[in-house]
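Students often ask why we bother encoding 3D structure as a string. The short answer is that it lets us treat folding as translation between two languages. Here is a chain of 337 residues written in the first language.
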Amino acid sequence: MEPQLEPIEPDTAVEMYLTDRKNELAKQTLRSHKGRLKPFRIWCEDNGINDLNDLSARDTRRYKIWQSESINNVTLKSYMDTLRVFLRWSADIDAVHPDLPEKVQSPSLRRGENEKTTHIDSETAQDILDYLRKYEYATLSHVVWEILWHTGMRRGAARSLDVSDYQSEDRYLDVCHRPETDTPLKNKYEGERPVAISEAVSTVIDDWVDNQRPDVTDDYGRQPLLATDFGRVHGQTIQKYIYMWSIPCAIGQDCPHGRDPDDCDATVNRNAAHMCPSSIAPHDIRRSAITHALREDAPVTAVSDRSNVSPDVLDKHYDQMTAEEKMDKRRGYFDNI
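And here it is in the second language, the structure alphabet:
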């Protein structure tokens, strides 16, 4: 028997979906879904689909072809995967045929196509930290770099920290999921964990808290560990610091790209630091810090727990060691067998 569908406009269905999943998804994930479904709404309007009941498998294929003309395979896959999730939800509210979601086709990716390789090696990271320790000691940008490189935590986790989450005597940071006060974690309560820090990093944080941190609270009366004069640091500010100090000439090194720092957009305008080919983003630090820990023989399970990432995802997306490096790491386990 054919299902009894109830008419609903695509725009209305998308808005209902976003509202319904607001408390289930992390804020950034919800924002991503909203962005990925926007072209679908436009496509429906342009193609006369005013009732989601009328959407067919052939329509989803046409939509995929239309999208493929302007975006790459990796992005297209994320858009089609989100569309499938949305249509599964739509089937639950009798808006589309229940068989339709599984007919949505995502592109197949070649091996390595969805694996980002941008990273920073440990020597470069150490050069940056040495410079910050000497010339920007215990400033906000210095503390950001120390925490992200040493712990490998996500930008959102670092931003979520309060002064009370820093345990100076026992040297650890207590990462907590607090969505009701605007500091959710990507993996919600499963992302909560204490993260041990070194004595050197603890000393920097002590000096930041005691001497440099502005005496401010955020909009919810909490005392953010990473603070500006206006309250809790914004995620984009953290990103700016990472871009800004990962430029070689920012720490007095020669430009590897043959540019004149006095005439380079990336250095003349610090808000354009991302334009330097050598600059990296916060997630690149996370990826690189995880790889560094693995190269230093930290157990996979320990790195997984510390960084809040499953071993499978860690191996696929974060471990940047070459096949030869991995072989050498394995060699020691089998030499005497």
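Translate back mentally: The domain at 122-285 is CATH 1.10.443.10 (hpI Integrase; Chain A). Keep this in mind for the problem set.
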